[in-house]
Structures are given as structure tokens and as C-alpha cells.
Fold:
Amino acid sequence: MPLSTPARIVSELASRGYNAEPAAVTRLAGTPEPAAALERALETMPDDALKLSADHVDSVLERSESRADARQTAGSSTKPETATSDTEDPSVSTGTTPSESKDDVGGAPVETKGSRDVDRSQRAIEVANDMTGNSTGTGEYSDFVHVFRDRYEKLASQLRGRVNHRPTDAIENMSGGSEAALIGMVSDIRSTASGHWLVELEDTNGTFPCLVMKDRPIADLVQQLLLDEVIAVDGTLADDAGILFVDSLHFPDVPRTHSPSTADRHVQAALISDIHVGSQEFMADAWHRFTDWLHTPEAEHVEYLLIAGDMVEGVGIYPEQDEELDIIDIYDQYEAFSEYLKEVPGDMEIRMIPGNHDAVRLAEPQPGFDEELRDIMSAHDASVHSNPSLVTVEGVTVLMYHGVSLDEVIAELPDEEASYEEPHKAMYQLLKKRHVAPQYGGHTRLAPEDRDYLVMEAVPDVFHTGHVHKLGWGQYHNVLALNSGCWQAQTEFQKSVNIDPDSGYAPILDLDTLEMTVRKFT
Ligand code: D5M
Ligand code: FE
Ligand code: ZN
Structure:
């Protein structure tokens, strides 16, 4: 049996009575000859090991790599493709640690301003999924039913090709012991007295209980589940057909074949967020250095500025926030923000979305600002779209989302899947679930609209978030996930919970190659 896919590897291991860490499976799937690698891994597995670990697979692959190297007489070494997908290091040029080019243009002479030589006629920008001005929801129960149904339909259509599913009510009438698959929204996750997982799935016809045995490799996938996300499962019905024993579990996910689009010319975009003007911790000096740099010839290809929310500090966002306010009136904060925006070269195209500190409703999707605020910020002619929005810049589709759900993903999932230190990994989870804020009822508030604007219907080329004030980026199935840091120094709250923000960085994206560099302005 060719072991080309992780699912096959998992079932091969299971048929021989082995468990494996998911990362071990992805490593094996990424080798040129997974079947041989699997054999070697099992042969050399320590007798007392209960589970095939990624480390063990790595050691096996390294041994075969050094053998391959020894055989090689010349040429570059052929590093086996051990790392794949979820655990992959970013393939962007600069790796996970930003290549910090310390800015040296602080106090750049004013005459550098206007030195940019740009041809605006080549620009192209399109926006989709912007619900500003189209809010229809009234928050009635029926609206929630409607929006969840839309979520289900959209995500189920992405899963349909992968399982031969039946609606829950049809499964109830199937005979015991038969194979069955269903697609549903996760409505409950519980562990049973014996440590197995009971996952209840809901579709438009009803709910059905699904049991994931604790000793199956897919049990690890249960740790990655969030309530209200849509998944597919495949398995065997119990004798009384009252429960499904799950053999495989599928996420809507981004296809590995996704091939990102790029711009036709050398042009760049700065992707930032969380400016927090109005806070005592807003780093005005770093901002001045950034905008001064934008006026230099070195930055002449940076023609776009995308801001993923929290333009101002806002008022009444968190308890005792007012003690750290520099500007106490929300409109004054936007007036000040508008002044800071004017420092950005006038020829740059600016697109922004609101965040949880901005003066729009908190529930997502958040519409772009109202007329009054747009008016205040009109000096630079910046456009505001809803949170989230799909902004396509010269062919490159950037999904802009502020990122409030990241707090929840980080709180709920195991550290290796999502942490504040590696915020991009939490973003991978959202890409896998094809939804920017799957779990309803926690931090993330949801405003029901006529459809679920938070579903990722299209696969973006770049996923841009902020909110957690940490800088991190990486590639997930060829999608560049970037969380862009902030322009606010550590607040009292962050001090109290040990959050060390990444402040004053500007990630710069080459739209023609999708390579990223990060510039530091502190
Ligand atoms: O969020 C910045 C980050 O800090 C984000 O991860 C939430 C967290 N944060 C900040 N202040 C608080 C309080 N008071 N309670 C809980 N979590 C908090 P931002 O949206 O910029 O405030
Ligand atoms: Fe913020
Ligand atoms: Zn925020």
C-alpha cells in the first residue's frame, strides 16, 4: 500500500497497533518513501515507547540523511523533506526571528520627504467580504440560526468531496455495524469515564454522538477542536447504531496544492496593526521613525499600508484602562491618529480594518468606521473596511482580520499548536478550520448577519492579523500567516500577566515574491 497520505500512515500504524504523534505522521508523509521510513521507524522504536514520536522519526530520518550524505561525492546535501505543513518553518526568507534592520533614519531631514518616485497607474486593489453598510442582523435568535446554517453549508461544501456523508437523521436509521460518515458542527466535546472522547456533531437535521478512542492517533486531533467549528468524521456505527466510532477526522483546511498569486512588478506592502494612539504607551518616536523611513528611497517600493485594527486605544475597553490614557476622548484619539497618518507618504494607499479598541461594535464582523470617524481620518484618504475583509493588492489576496479569536485559540489548544510566542501557529489553526473565529460565546462576540462573513470561503495568499501584540509569521500550506506586533509599549495589564509585546516593528511584504522582511523602529 502506498503510504502517501497522513491518513494512510495513520491507518497503517493503527492496524499494527501503534499510536503516533501527529507531527510524527506529518514527518513520515513528507519523506520521499514514507513506507520505508515507517518501517525503519518502527524497527528502531524503543521497546518501552508507547507512541511513535516526532523526535524518533527525526532521528531515523537524520540517520538515513547522513547515510545519503556519505554516499554523495559532490554537490549540495539533500536534506530530506522532513518538515511539512503544520510544523514547517516559515519558508519566507527571514525565518522565524525577524531580520532586524535597525532603522537609522531617525530624524531624517525633511527634504527626504517626497523623494519617492512612484507610478500610481500600476496600482490595483480590490476588496471583498466587506459588510460595512450592509449589516442586517438584529440579534434575534432566528438570526443566529440563520448564520450558523450558512456557516455549516459553506464549510460542509468544502468537506463533501472527502467523505461519503449522510445526514444525522439518516444515520440514526442505518443498521448497526455499518460504515458511516457525517459532517457537523462540533456542539459538545466531553471525555468519558474511561478517558475516550465523545464529540457531538450537529448538522441541519439533528445531532449525533461520535466516539474517538483515546488510544487512536486521531485522539490528538480532538485536542485541536473548538466548539462550533465544522468537521467531517468517518467511522463505524455501534451495534445499536446509537454512536459512531470514529476512524478518521477531517478539517475543511487549505488544500496543500494552493498556489499563491503574486504581483507582476516589484512592489511592497507594510502590514502593521495595533497602533493604540491615545494610550500613554503609544510609541510615537518609533512611529515617526517608521514614517520617516517610508519617505526614503529605500522604501520607495512600499506603496501599500495595511493596518489590521486597534488604530486607537479607545475608552472603557478594559477595567482601569483610563489610568493609562494619554487622550481621554475617543474622537480626540482619532484626530490624533489622523495626524500620525498624515506622516505616511501621501502617495501610499492605506487600507484598514477596526479592532476591539476601535469605536465600532465589538461583535464580529465589525463594520468599517461610521461617517463621522471616516471624516476625521479623511486627510490621508485612507479606506476602512470591515473586520474581517479580503483585500486583494495587485493580485495578492490578503485576509485582514484583527485577531480577537486568537486569545481563545491560544487558551484552548495545546501550547505546541498555539501560543503567544508563536502567534502564527494559532493562525494556522484558523486556516485549518477555514474560519476566523470558530468558537462562539467566549471572548469573541458574534453579530449574526445574513451570512457568516467569518468563514474563509476563498483561500487567501496572506493572512494578516494583530491583536495579541506579538510578531510572528510562517507558511501554512503555502499561505503566509503574519501576526504583526504593535506600536504600544508594555501596559500595566501586560506587565501583570507577563506579556512582553513586540513593539515598533514593520513587516514589509514583497508582493511579487511574498518574501518578508521585518524592520525595527525602536
Ligand atoms: O490586546 C492585546 C493583548 O493583550 C491581547 O492578547 C488581549 C490581551 N489583553 C490586554 N489587556 C487585557 C485585559 N485587561 N484583559 C484581558 N486581556 C487583555 P488589545 O486588544 O490590544 O487590548
Ligand atoms: Fe491591540
Ligand atoms: Zn486588539
